[in-house]
DNA sequence: ACAATAACGAGAGCATTGCTCTTGCTTGGA
DNA sequence: TCCAAGCAAGAGCAATGCTCTCGTTATTGT
């Protein structure tokens, strides 16, 4: 409200950012388990107790990093979609978003583990996390919505058992999409991260060698599962999109 | 190999088991991050230093728990398959194995997080873990192999990009199965755990309400993905298998 | 302009942790 | 019987998260 906003306030945001940066560096270097408030303070040249003016506890620092990480993956997915216009091949847009998420995960494995691995601390997800956490899912939904608007998506009917839950999810998430599509999309969403997590957490060691090819294939199959078909006809007739 | 093998040796295995039990209890109560050697020793009425005679470090204790957890999920999956003979509906056997894994995960969330969440400590997976870690995957392979032997599994041809990797995986994992099936099976394997992890780690909060129905549906679709089709004909004509 | 208030940084301190080292005791085999 | 190996306990070290207190500094209200 005041004019200059005070040197103090600016210093606060700067120091807060510096703390988070240093914490991220330690996270990337050693993992979440080894992230130490004292080491962060030491590296920043301040007393460890001073840090508590900015983050009331270690878990709060972690939570801040979690929110930032969710935002970063979400932004990566959205950027991939922004690079391919909604008019383009919907199947390719889907796989592009998936690949963007995977690329971010490979670039920031510890941040990825922070948000998609085991809940770290006493783990209570505060309200601040739910909005950033939804960004990837919303990006995927937007691809499907575009595809549904232009082509219309048709999926085989759901079995009786899921139908009530499918209707509920559709009404809750995307009332403009068929329940079968929404259900398939939620499944594909979780399965996408299952594949990325397995690769990142080492479960593919001695199993999958060419991870790029395998992921490309998996993402494409997930696209099929949600009703997206490659625009086979049209201009470019190249069989496989990538490399 | 000798006769009595000494009371000492027996005491050692007993104490080792007691330590692991207490550690498991703490794991279930507080999570892997809070598992403390000193607390385990305290609870067992022994000095903390005495614990190091049995496990050279905290990470070694964790590793022992990891091995046990892998064995437990693997055993759960195998038991589910043993309950349904190989002659039965292959699709139902697949979903039964999947559901068994999920049930174990819901019953032992922290042990599940230990093995399928973020790698916890300095995380180096020793050789001892790889065999137990494969049990679930091998159980799933056995279902597919049985199905392939009796019915033969046919899947649409793979795109050019994955074909080399698919051949490599098939030769490495199950040379008697078509590469397309093996590839789909690896994907389904990781996706299964993606769905379970999302449910367990809270990513389905405010998204999926009827988790049982959703999982049943997802597992069935995964079965279709690997080429398993429900034995629709025969006796019972009910549309959906489960209740 | 001045004083009250709030934010701030630093240091000391507490409880706890993983781990090591040394010191005795107990057991198993010669 | 006696010795070596296994064992348990205690003290101790470095490090952690967190709290409290005490001066200092900036902001704000009058």
Structure write-up:
Two copies of one chain form a homodimer. Chain A has helices spanning 7-30, 37-44, 48-51, 58-83, 90-107, 109-116, 127-133, 135-150, 163-173, 179-200, 211-225. Chain A is mainly alpha-helical and 243 residues long. Chain A folds into two domains: 1-56, Arc Repressor Mutant, subunit A, CATH 1.10.10; 59-225, Tetracycline Repressor, domain 2. In chain A, helix 5 packs across helix 11. Residues 233-243 of chain A have low confidence and may be disordered. Chain A binds a DNA duplex (30 and 30 nucleotides) through residues 2, 6-8, 11-12, 36-39, 46-50, 52-53, 57-58.
Biggest interface, residues from each chain: A-B, 62 and 63 residues
Q: What string, H for helix and E for strand, traces the elements of chain A in order?
A: HHHHHHHHHHH
Radius of gyration of chain A: 21 Å
User: In CATH, what is the class of the largest domain in chain A?
Assistant: Mainly Alpha
Percent of residues of chain A in helical segments? 55-70%
- Mean pLDDT rating of chain A: 90
- Low-confidence spans of chain A: 233-243
Which class of secondary structure composition applies to the elements of chain A? mainly alpha
Based on the coordinates given, report the CATH architecture of the largest domain in chain A. Answer: Orthogonal Bundle
CATH homology group of the largest domain in chain A: Tetracycline Repressor, domain 2
How much of the sequence lies in strands of chain A comes to: under 5%
């Amino acid at each position: 409200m005041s004019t200059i906003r005070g040197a103090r306030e600016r210093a606060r945001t700067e120091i807060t950012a510096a703390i988070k940066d240093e914490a991220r560096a330690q996270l990337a270097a050693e993992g979440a388990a080894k992230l130490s408030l004292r080491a962060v303070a030491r590296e920043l040249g301040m007393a460890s107790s001073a840090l508590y003016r900015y983050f009331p506890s270690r878990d709060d620092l972690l939570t801040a990093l979690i929110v930032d990480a969710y935002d970063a993956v979400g932004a990566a997915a959205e950027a991939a979609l922004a690079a391919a216009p909604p008019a383009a091949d919907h199947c390719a847009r889907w796989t592009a978003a998936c690949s963007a998420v995977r690329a971010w995960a490979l670039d920031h494995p510890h941040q990825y583990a922070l948000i998609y691995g085991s809940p770290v601390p006493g783990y209570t997800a505060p309200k601040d996390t739910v909005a950033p956490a939804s960004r990837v899912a919303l990006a995927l939904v937007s691809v499907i919505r575009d595809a549904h608007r232009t082509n219309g998506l048709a999926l085989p009917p759901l079995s009786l058992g899921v139908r009530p839950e499918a209707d509920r999810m559709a009404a809750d998430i995307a009332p403009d999409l068929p329940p079968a599509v929404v259900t398939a999309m939620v499944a594909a969403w979780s399965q996408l991260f299952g594949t990325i997590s397995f690769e990142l957490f080492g479960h593919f060691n001695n199993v999958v060698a060419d991870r790029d090819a395998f992921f490309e294939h998996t993402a494409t199959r997930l696209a099929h599962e949600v009703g997206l078909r490659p625009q086979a006809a049209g201009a470019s007739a190249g069989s496989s999109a990538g490399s």
